[in-house]
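Record Flagellar hook-basal body complex protein FliE, 96 aa.
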Amino acid sequence: MDIKKSLAAQAYAQTRSAVALEPPPNSAEDGAARFLGSFAETLSRGEETARAAMTGGADPHALVEALASSQTAVETVVTVRDRVVEAYQEILRMPV
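=>
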């Protein structure tokens, strides 16, 4: 019985150390930077796929998939921007 507890404790310690290797974002700036980096990467992949499709290097299915993911990314960024503007306007309306 004691052996099982020590093995469980060792497995827990290994799992905890593996999870602790990736630190959480420290601020909203880090999260925003990762979000914008992902957005830029999605758009660049879509552009590369479109270029390849124009030269015959990509199939039409890949082109449609890249365009759909680019459209989703742009719609997401526009929605976030609208929410930020709304929040800013609400702050401006607050009485001092």
